[in-house]
Specification:
Number of strands: 9
Number of helices: 10
Oligomer: single chain
Shape: globular
Largest sheet: 7 strands, mixed
Structural class: alpha/beta
């Protein structure tokens, strides 16, 4: 009957032509950029999700301790057989490039030295840090500072985490802590008392700008297609203003707060 044909045709028109693809990425705790508990899972997660959404790809995140998060992404699967295409967000180095495809730059941040107001570390060249003890975590790569240490200019005192490093700083056991500015500011606001925060400042000299990428394992052939889609998605959200809006939200502190629960 004609009306049946019209009805079927209208239903077909209402259906999506193609369902979105889904990519599964490991993630971790690095607020305000990445966190299971923050709005949009943090600033960097929001950028990645919006870039993929603009090219019809949905993102599923899995949150794990960083060592496990990296290993799952490298292997393309967890020990339970779950598929993981890659992980966010990481700095390029040659060792990682052996196992991962790197996207265009997702975000940048600059690293500065946090020190005590009573013992300020102001510097312009590495030679100005001669004899200083700089704190660092066991898992973080500090190319400029490590090069200076190799030359005997300074010493890097490693610890498991930044809580330990800031405890050492406040106790005067180290001279400074290198930290990405946004992450360091978030850490102090959420982990130190007002009195402790008042004792700490950061130097105006930037150690270096750090560029972060989405990285996808070479173990999954489809990841070459996903990287191309993602890079196009990044271009899309930069062109339509979404990238700038998310950057503005970072400055406004949107990603400092827990995500809303249903």
């Amino acid at each position: 009957m004609p009306w049946v044909v019209v009805w079927i045709f209208s239903v077909l028109l209402s259906l999506p032509l193609q369902a979105n693809q889904t990519i599964r990425l490991t993630n971790g705790e690095w607020p305000p950029y990445l966190s299971e508990n923050l709005s949009h899972y943090g600033y960097a997660s929001h950028l990645v999700s919006e870039a993929f959404a603009s090219v019809g790809v949905d993102v599923e995140y899995g949150f794990f301790p960083w060592k496990r998060s990296f290993q799952y992404a490298k292997d393309g699967a967890s020990s339970f057989g779950e598929i993981w295409h890659g992980t966010i967000v990481w700095i390029y180095n040659d060792e990682r490039a052996k196992n991962f495809i790197f996207s265009d730059v997702v975000m940048e941040d600059y690293q500065v030295l946090f020190s005590l107001r009573s013992n300020p570390v102001d510097w312009e060249t590495m030679d100005d840090l001669a004899g200083k003890t700089i704190g660092g975590t066991l898992h973080t790569f500090y190319p400029v500072l490590e090069s200076a240490q190799e030359k005997g200019v300074l010493h890097i005192d490693r610890a498991r985490d930044y809580q330990t490093l800031f405890t050492r700083l406040l106790a005067g056991r180290i001279d400074a802590v290198p930290y990405d500015w946004h992450v360091g500011s978030y850490f102090m606001k959420n982990n130190l008392s007002a009195d402790q925060r008042a004792q700490i400042r950061f130097s105006p000299t930037v150690i270096g700008t750090r560029e972060f990428h989405l990285i996808l394992t070479k173990q999954v052939p489809k990841n070459h297609e996903f990287i191309e889609l993602f890079n196009q998605g990044l271009k899309n959200i930069k062109a339509n203003g979404v990238y700038q809006e998310i950057q503005n939200n970072l400055k406004l502190g949107t990603y400092d707060h827990p995500k809303l629960t249903e």
